[in-house]
Each structure stands twice: as C-alpha cells, then as structure tokens.
Amino acid sequence: MLPKPTLDAAARQEFRERGAGCQPARLATCPTRITIERMSPHELEQLAARLLSGEISIQDFVGRATGPTIADVGPAQVDLDRHRRCGFPEVVYAPGKTVEAMERIFGALVAHGHDVLATRMTAEQAAELLPRFPTGRYNPVGRTFRIPLPTQATAGDGQRADTGRIAIVTAGTTDLPVAEEARETALWTGAEVTLIQDVGVAGPHRLTANLPLLQGADAVVVVAGMEGALPSVVGGYVACPVVAVPTSVGYGASFGGVAALLGMLNSCASNVTVVNIDAGFKGGYVAGLIAKNAARARERTTN
How many Å apart are CA 222 and CA 70, to the nearest integer? Predict the structure, then answer.
C-alpha cells in the first residue's frame, strides 16, 4: 500500500487561513494546495507498458508519471489520480456538501483535465453552481451535474471514436429518475448510450419490439422496481453483461426495493449482476467500465 500523503501542520494552517478569507464569488482564485505522491515501481512499469504499446502518448505518460495525485482544497482531498487507477475520475456525492465546497472540488478536477460528475444534487445547489460553471449541465430528473471536457474523442477518420456502447432499459416510467442517473453516468464515462423506457414484463411485447436496440451493446443496465423480473427477461435475449438496478418503486410488500433486489439476486439468467437499490450511478459506472474495456479489446483486434 502506498503511504498516505500528508501536509505538515504549518502548511495546513496556512491553507486554512488563506482559504478562510475567500469569498464565494472568488473561489476560483482561492488557494489549492497540491500534494504529490510517487507512483510505485509496479505502477510505473504498467504505465510504461501502455506507452510502448501505443495506448497512451508520450505527453500522457509524462503527465501521469509526474502530475499531482491529490488536491487539498480545504473541505476535501480531491483524488486526481483515480482516473489512472480506476478508469474514471473521482465522482462527487452532493448531499451534505456546501456549494462552496463543491465549487472548490469541481475547480480542482477541471483544472487537471477531468470531466466532472456529481450525483444526487438538488435544484437549489445546481442553481448556485451553474453561473460559476457555465458549461455545466444539470439533469433535474436524474439529479446529476456534469461539466464535460470541451473535446470529443474521435478516430483517425474524423468519426466518433469507439468508447463502448450501453443500453439502459426501464421497466416503468416511475423508474426514470434512477435510469437518468445511470444514463448520465454512462455518458460521463464516454460511452454511446441508448435509453429504452417503459418495457416492463406486464407488456412483454414492448421489450421484444425494442430488441434490435439492445443488439451490439457491450452492457445493458436494467432498472426495475416491483418484483424486479425484467433483468432476467433481458438477460435471456443478450450476449453481454446485464447490470440490474432495483428501485424502491412498488407497494407495501416491495419493502422499498428489497423485493426487487432479492428477485434480481436470485435471477436464473447467468449474465445478470446486481447493484444497490436506486443506485443508478453504480449501474452506469459498472456498465461504463465494461463498455470501455470492450472498446479497447476491439481496438486491439483491429490494429
């Protein structure tokens, strides 16, 4: 395990004293102390192998090998190295955080070239943050806030690069808030996303009519409440992982999504895996990782 980076007491006190004087409108100019943690030899070898294989450029190699790994913004220690370790940048969970804290966190992520994603954000929080981040986008249904990078990955022929394909399926319209959280998360991972709404098992012909949209997906996220049967049905039609997201939609014996969770965990379809109740973010994130790795495998095969 790598040693945890620390700031000496004097440095922390200096940061807090300087940061305490920052006004909300001037947060972008407030101090951000960067702590650098060295890569382990194994991590550096892995990075060098990616350089030699052509997966990353020399500029990427230098930036990742020498760049900062933590931004101490006062209320948070922002993990700037998570994209390298885990595939995607750190995600911000908005509940319990002040707008000022989120502005500092977002500023650190943007300054180091990371797409920003925050989940479970209220409309009031978003209303204060949007003027400070004009390129930000708030989804009031999914309660997500994104600040996308200005560039879009493209292939050599100018077409959109293959970053993976994800389909998101909802059983009912009431499941849409969780599905939108999953969709925004999947888009944030860079994947191409298709949303198919309201195709629950009470009307099975609706699903079969949309099966062509599921073909070719690297992963399918299925969002369902009630008895949670839909992921098993979808799993029987596709040759890819199905990420089941139980929702708290349902009447008394649904126990706030526990019935759907247990039904999905007991799925007879072998390609179904399950995340937590109402965890659209987790469903979209896991699907994004699957899609990203599938796209990489296709690229290696064609090159």
Answer: 35
